[in-house]
Amino acid sequence: MILILLLFGGTMLLSLWASSRVKSTYLKYSEIPAASGETGAQVAAQILDQAGIHDVEILAHDEMLGDHYDPMNKRLVLSTANYYGTSCSALGVAAHECGHAIQHKQAYAPLQWRMAAVGATTYANQVVMWLPLIGIFTNIISPYTGALIMAVAWGIIMLFNLVTLPVEFDASSRAKVILGNMGHVATPDQMGAVKKVLDAAAFTYVAAFITSLGYLLYYLLPLFFGRNDEE
Fold first, then answer.
1. Section 24-43 average pLDDT
2. pLDDT value for 24
3. Are 95 and 113 within 8 A, CB to CB?
4. pLDDT 10s digits, 164-192
5. Rounded to an integer, what distance in angstroms lies between the CA atom of residue 1 and that of residue 139?
6. Are 210 and 11 in contact (CB under 8 A)?
7. What pLDDT was estimated at residue 229?
8. Whose CA is closest to 89, among 174, 25, 35, 184?
9. DSSP secondary structure letter of residue 107
């Protein structure tokens, strides 16, 4: 029990720190205007057009840092601040999401793997959320069986988070190159601002991977070493 509390507390603190870091970094560099003076939506449209992508809709929504590319519906969704913003933060995020659209067009393998794993990961998330409660209140699942199911579920989540890392790092790398080549960021300070925003965002995915790996090991190692209540 102490170990699970330490694991839960440690990974929760890691996630909160990563989230706080990306928000503070984003807000800091949202005060620095980019060279082009164009909005995130305008820059995204130019990047997609240059990449020969003409079937992706660019939309605005109100959720801060809820920006994402939806490959199933071919939609690039930007927060209002990034859709209308002209800062280094806004352009960095917009270009990053365009990076995912370019990955999709090029059938970038890690993105294809992540898309294929979405369904299984959704089920796995439901398992790790509800199975412990079912075990506590019903006692219908033995500790060993419960640990095995939880290990499998966390393994799926861990693999999903692992394959997400190259997807996100590659999109950020593309964003930096594209913004520089197109002249939207023109000075080392502006490029540095874009890099720091994207690097801070990437660490949230690293934190998610570390969290899932920690829980996987928590449930998996006792199975290997035979520490279960059925012995």
1. 95
2. 95
3. no
4. 999 999 999 999 999 999 999 989 999 99
5. 17
6. yes
7. 43
8. 25
9. T
Alpha helices (runs of H) in 77-142, residue ranges in sequence order: 80-84, 88-105, 109-138
Amino acid 226: pLDDT: 64
Using DSSP bridges, classify how beta strands 75-79 and 68-70 pair: parallel, antiparallel or unpaired.
antiparallel
Mean pLDDT value of segment 81-85: 96
Tell me how far apart the alpha carbons of residues 143 and 230 are, in angstroms, rounded to a whole number. 7
Q: What is the identity of the amino acid at 228?
A: N
pLDDT confidence of residue 230? 44
Taking alpha carbons only, the member of 136, 141, 167 closest to residue 69 is: 167
Q: Show the CA angle centred on residue 153, arms to residues 156 and 224, nearest 5°.
A: 100
Tokens of 29: 């560099």
- What letter would DSSP give residue 62? S
To the question of pTM greater than 0.85 for the whole model, the response is yes
Catalytic residue selected from 31, 97, 168, 230: 97
Catalytic residue status for 97: yes
Distance CA 15, CA 7 (A): 12
139: left (phi over 0), alpha (psi -120 to 50) or beta: left
- CA 126 from centre of chain: 19
Mean pLDDT to the nearest integer, 36-63 = 96
Mapping DSSP to helix (H, G, I), strand (E, B) and coil, where does residue 176 land?
helix
Other CB atoms within 10 A of residue 105 CB: 15
